[in-house]
Amino acid sequence: MPKRASRSASVKKRPVQQVFMGKTLSLSGDFGQDMSYRDMARLITMHGGTFVKDVTDDTVILISTLDDFKKKSSQVRKALKLRRSCTIVGVKWLIDSLPQSNAKKRFMPPKKYALNEQLRVDPKKELVDRKLHDIYTDSTGFKYEVKLHRYENEVKAHHEKYTLYLFQSRAAPHTYMTGAKFNKGYTPTVFYRDIMCRPKTLQDALQDFKKLFKNKTGVPWEQRLEKREGRKETEFVFEVPKLGRPVGELPVEYIMPEEWKF
Fold first, then answer.
1. What is the pLDDT of residues 11-32, one digit of tens each?
2. Which of the residues 97, 100, 114, 118 has the least number of beta carbons within 10 Å of its own beta carbon?
3. Cα-flanking dihedrals φ and ψ of residue 161, to 5°?
4. What are the beta bridge partners of residue 147?
């Protein structure tokens, strides 16, 4: 008597949904370590799309960072020349279009995610007057513009980001202040000024910066390069500088992790 096939063997794997079928997509900008070009290209092709390194006449979607869009990178300029045939969107469009679990997804309307629309509804704001202040750079060449990230699930949906700043006045004697801004998807940017973003000494402003960093990440600023396990879901992750770039001043007794030695 022939053996009955096991239930697990008879269950067919669910095919990957081809939500980008027939679409040619490209990228522009640095999306951070959690969203590399290789990962994004793989997601696009896995779900039926065609990924091209450079924008061509066939490109219908350019996924760009807001910074690249504002400064009009070469990729953005190429896409703009295509006019209505190519829409420039943020990475949230890609995330929202990806199937999650067994939920059905469709090709999300790119017009709703167009970066030009985002700029139109989100007026330009600043934490400080940038004509009077610069971002503080320490003796190692590290610029105090620190990005913290948090994602809601494994497919990196609902991306949230804090950007922490330490400012230095251009006028002497210098004063310093800490501020932050928060971004989540296409919601308006939230600016955190309160009592921290006021002129102080470097020591006091730096303490504000470190306190804010630990409050959002759960990690002391001095331990920012250490590998961490057991992070709470509510905590953000520090986007460490790329290897070889300044990491900021560290305590004299600090022992640099092996992965940072080169």
1. 455 667 888 999 999 999 888 7
2. 100
3. -145, 130
4. 163
